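Board notes (copied after class):
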Amino acid sequence: MATKIAAIAVVLACSGCASVMNDSTHPIKVETKTQAGELVSGAECKLSNDYGTVTMKSGDTTQIRRSGKDLDIVCKDAKNPDATARAISRANGGMWGNIILGGGIGAIIDHNKGTAYTYPTWMQLIFGKTLVFDRTVEKEGQPTLGAEPVVSAMTSAKAASAPEVAAGK
């Protein structure tokens, strides 16, 4: 009986681990650069996920709502083509604590609330490019490196045949 009570206490203590450890928001710094590598401050940036859109100026830091869904970013500047990016949402330590310690209920709660996830905290978008940022390559005190999205052969083939389909061929 004591073992069952102890097990229940552990599960209840772990439920919502990420909710206890993490706020529902976290800070993100977005910077913009020209293709030559010069920083451009003050571009209008919109960061969007399933919880809504936040508007900010490049060079600033803002709070963004955590989510299991990726974050889409578009920065606009009158002198440059748009800079676009996707920040990949990754499970954080609170989620793994729930899973390892058996808090399945807590993992579900934290997943649904988004507190179990984190985006990269510092990104540098490049005008005229679309980049993907993944915090698995994040290094403390440095901007996360962005990568150009990988286009598969199947996606390329579909894109190449799309004009023919549209023309009725």
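Comment from the instructor: Residues 2-21, 161-169 have pLDDT under 50 and may be disordered. The helical segments are 2-14, 17-21, 93-100, 104-113, 153-166.
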